[in-house]
Amino acid sequence: MIIIYHCFGGSHSSVTAAALHLGLVEKHRIPTIKEMMALPYFDKTTNSDFGSIRFMGVDEYGNEVYVLGKKSLGDRFSNILTGVAELLEVGDKVMPVNCMSRVNWGMKVGGFASRRLGLVSLGRPVLGRGTRKAFLNLVNLVEITRLKAMYKVRV
Length: 155
Hints:
The chain contains 5 helices and 4 strands. The protein is an alpha/beta fold. It has one domain.
């Protein structure tokens, strides 16, 4: 199965979710900002990365995990990915996961300041606090995704 976590910029919530999915961060302990910064792609996305599906790793069940920044496409993007997968007759092998429902204002404001405005020293601390605050919600999303992936593999 191919699991694609996506969010607005593909740099924060989707990367954190993918890292949780792959065990790069522990789900039982909120990571420090320094630990988050060590994750691949975390707060490192550029404009040229939007729309690019970036590989994060393979989980213990052989599922490939990716991240993607989709700007303001919302759930429409999940529909696009699912539609393309169905056209290619691999619809049952692709699972898009929209992380935006787990994003809070700290992540939005901090991410905007850091990535969009280039004010990293101002945005990153706000973003880090926001991500830490949203962490357990992201854990929940990942656990739901992992269960859905296990169900799809068994069917």
